Sequence to fold (195 residues):
Amino acid sequence: MKTFLNPRLMGWLLLVSAGLMAFHPPNSTPELAKRKLMADRTKSTITYAMSHPMHSFEGVSRDVACVMVVDDANKIESVAAAAKLSSFDSDNTNRDSHALETMEALKYPKVTFTSNDIQQDGNNLTIKGNLTFHGVTKPVVIQANRQDGNAQITVKGDFDIKLSDYKIERPSLMMVPVDETVKLKIHMVFKDTAS
Fold:
């Protein structure tokens, strides 16, 4: 025995089920809106510190291009940064010229970083990613701190690299090479467009 639904009833059931699907789509979660924030070049720096038995010195770049992607919940999703090697200033032109020569800055003019994982615990950040320097890309981990306020997000952090990992010959002074480890500090200030 066959039963047929009234065509009007069938249309009504289809309309109701389509409406339910529109309000409750299967397996979907709302995607949070993302914002792209650019670092303020007048306030952001990357600093390197090197040691030699006779003295220690630092070089600072105040020309850093950096972008950060933040979701609608204000969580940092990704970061990318680049700086020209020629923008680092150690207050010694001879040392800076020698450093550019040693790092083959004409062949490899920039140092870049791209994140691939960012974990946040309170104000503390663990930023994992890849640093490309002297044509070599290596994974690095940056321990950082985030401060929000005055319509900006400030991220400060540090990490170490070894010159040999990037195939860079250690510069020497009086035939004594500098220490293998270079300490890097970041200070990035982003204008928070959501504030």
